[in-house]
Amino acid sequence: MNGLLSLRVLFVLMFLFLFGFLTVCYSSHYVFYPVSIGFVPQPPPLVFNGSSFCVCGGSYRVGRASLTFSDFEGLPDGWGSLGGSWVISVGAGFRGNSLWGTDNNGGPGGSSIYYWGFSVSSYTSFSVSVKVRQVAQAGGAVYMGVTLLQSNSVSSRSYEISVYVSGTTGYLDIWYWSGNRWTRLYRSTQSFYVDGTRWFILLINYSRVATTNTISATVYDVNGNVLASGSIQIRGARFFTPSYVGVSVDGSGSVAGAQAMFDDFVISIGSHMYVLVEGVPQGYRVELYDDEDRLVAEAVSDGGVVRLDVLRDVVVGRGLGATFKIYGEGLNPCSVLIEEAVVGGDYYRVLIHSVLVNLSDHLTRAEILVSFSPYSLTLPETQVLSVLNQDLMPYHVRLVFYPNSSVVGEGLKLLIKLSNGTSSTTLVIDGSTPPSQPVYTDFLPIITEASINVTMSKDVNTQSDLSLELIYCSDPISRGVCVHYPITVRV
Question: What is the per-residue pLDDT for 17?
């Protein structure tokens, strides 16, 4: 009886459990929520960075028209005086210092002359220019300019070409001293205003044919505007062959004490109004800066010789050097430092290479075109690309060169350096013995940035088309995931 009751109870319990289970299962509701998946493109962790630019490989002077020049930063060597007091006035020049002359009636005709001590008698033509500025008049006037001497003695005959100032009015004058009297040969009809602060440029051209001297002169302001000009021919008793050239100051009559300052003195056997520059590609702009980084002149190249007008500062700056800055359209500029005095009439040859950089495919492909100067087939070490790490994790990079998909000019010598700032690795390509298998650099870690520098030279009339890749990996040992970026270099 008890056993039967127990079975009945167990049966009831099992029925209740099964009924409850089925009720739960078949009476439940299932809810499905929609899910969308979007793909957002991410920039590559490493990208190329670079732009086209010029490379100034240097310069050299191939010609100089000047026989002598002085910026009067100090008293020049090899000069002498006939009368007068001659000192350097610190900071009072057009640029830097100047020569300050005071007349004491001690030179030819009562003038005072400071002259270059080398004879110019063998030259049948030459040019002279100097900047002049009035300091003080004597006897109501001052003559300040250039004197051509027959000899370096007080008794010498002379031609004086000067800016004559009376009160505040200036003229261009040309005088002849015979040894016992002065004769005025020319005075300009044009006059101009003069005060104690204005500098004037006096440009003189002298030529001699047989027994005839021709003297032409022009007075400019410092902006290159013509204020007065004139030309004369001298024959007969007033003719002589000039031997010495100097600057001079004189007062009116026999009154001493006239004073003037002088700067930028040049004697040349050709025009010294321009600095000439060759080697600049057509369309490029050339700017000339003095030693204190002031712009002196600029011009655009027509593919030939560039003429930079330096009349206003013929001994550029303080005569302590200058800089050429070269600008190509769409190119970052380059500079050439000249560590010597640059003077009107100088002829320079500059070595300018261009590096054109084209980046594509989201900055993961680079094409580089190198064009050499016609005067140099050597490119100094130059950074052509950088590699930027835009990710938070470090990567390892290397370069590989593929000779089988490249054209290597026989005379090409190329050194490519991959650097991360603390260490570097190099790849060498020699056109005389080109490799037959791919050439790799070592791996370098890159945290933020790496640079790719090239140094190359080539023979004339050879061209190269080089196929390279930048490879970066997450792990240089197991190689992990590696990505290849193509680089093409054309020379």
Answer: 53
Q: What is d(CA 487, CA 452) in angstroms, rounded to the nearest whole number? A: 11
Whole-angstrom distance, CA of residue 208 vs CA of residue 131: 25
Which domain-ending residue is among 218, 234, 268?
Answer: 268
Two tokens, residue 107: 């030179």
What total number of domains does the chain contain?
3
* CA 205 – CA 229 distance, rounded (Å): 11
Same domain, 215 and 285: no
DSSP 340-377: S--BTTEEEEEEEEEEEEEEETTTTEEEEEEE--TT--
Q: Which residues of 439-471 are buried (b: 16+ CB within 10 A; e: fewer)?
A: bebebbebeeebbbbbbbbbeeeeebebbbbbb
Q: How would you classify the pairing of strands 413-419 and 449-457? A: antiparallel
Domain match, 262 and 277 both: no
Beta strand spans in 117-258 (E): 125-136, 142-149, 158-166, 169-177, 182-187, 192-193, 200-209, 212-221, 226-234, 244-251
Percent residues over pLDDT 70 in the chain:
91
Is the distance from CB of 103 to CB of 144 less than 8 angstroms? no
Token pair belonging to 257:
């004490």
Structure-token pair, residue 112: 């005072």
The structure tokens 């089988």 sit at 404
* pLDDT tens sequence across 387-440: 999 988 899 999 999 999 999 998 999 999 999 999 999 999 999 998 999 999
What's the whole-number mean pLDDT along residues 32-59?
A: 81
| Residue 336, domain extent | 57-62+273-351
Q: Is residue 16 part of a domain?
A: no
Q: Which two tokens stand for residue 406?
A: 């490249």
Q: Is the pTM of this model over 0.90?
A: no
The SS3 assignment for 2 reads helix
